[in-house]
Recover the amino acids of this structure.
């Protein structure tokens, strides 16, 4: 598995601050913000992390991801807010591609998987050797065959992905790839670290409370059966409307 960022939004920090600042004042130019001291930029960044996330959508990252399974990319592309370009199996002969065995090496499944995928890849090659179309032969290919994909996400989407894809309930390959993606982001933008936290760290609660195998659950809060119903009953009794006011470029 190999992950690289091949493109990203230039002046990302200043762009984030400018788009947020524009909503509330409209007096600062992006040139003004670029000239702010680093301490002021980071202070404003900390403020905007706890506000409406629309400004986060102005910062994009394009990842090139190689040596991952089709099983992983099938899950990755479920993120609707992403853009993708993936290696074709319809037109490309992938007989030399690696097939990843994800079973433990000392398990019965390891040997069974290896023998099965060897047979499948041999049959795939045989079909091509006899002139059968690649687009038909691909129907034999195993889900764990490796592939490459280019994916583009904005910072808001990456934040939302991090909440669940860093979670221990996520399939192992996805966890490893996503951690590498975030590592690459932070190499470019170390100030973005607090944007990418797992759900239990960000909210203090568990995203999958029925998954009781997670070792983090001893640290998260479980409110007990009927808690959500009680909250709904209390919510139905109230009527409250916020009246936010911008002051010095910030709202309450």
């Amino acid at each position: 598995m190999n992950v690289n960022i091949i493109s990203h939004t230039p002046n990302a920090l200043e762009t984030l601050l400018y788009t947020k600042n524009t909503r509330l004042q409209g007096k600062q130019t992006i040139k003004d913000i670029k000239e702010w001291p680093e301490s002021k930029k980071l202070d404003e960044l900390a403020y905007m992390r706890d506000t409406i996330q629309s400004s986060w959508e102005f910062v994009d990252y394009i990842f090139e991801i190689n040596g991952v399974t089709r099983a992983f990319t099938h899950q990755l592309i479920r993120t609707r807010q992403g853009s993708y370009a993936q290696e074709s199996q319809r037109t490309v002969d992938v007989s030399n591609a690696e097939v990843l065995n994800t079973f433990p090496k000392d398990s019965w499944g390891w040997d069974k998987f290896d023998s099965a995928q060897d047979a499948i890849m041999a049959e795939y090659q045989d079909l091509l050797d006899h002139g059968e179309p690649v687009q038909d032969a691909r129907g034999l290919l195993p889900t764990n065959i490796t592939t490459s994909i280019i994916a583009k996400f904005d910072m808001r989407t990456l934040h939302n992905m991090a909440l669940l894809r860093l979670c221990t309930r996520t399939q192992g390959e996805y966890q490893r790839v996503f951690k590498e993606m975030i590592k690459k982001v932070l190499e470019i933008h170390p100030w973005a670290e607090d944007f990418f936290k797992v759900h239990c760290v960000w909210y203090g609660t568990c995203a999958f409370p029925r998954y009781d195998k997670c070792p983090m659950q001893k640290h998260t809060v479980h409110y007990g059966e009927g808690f959500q119903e009680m909250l709904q009953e209390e919510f139905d009794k109230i009527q409250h409307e916020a009246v936010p006011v911008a002051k010095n470029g910030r709202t309450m």
Q: What stands out?
A: The first strand starts at residue 2 and ends at 8. The chain has a mean pLDDT of 91.
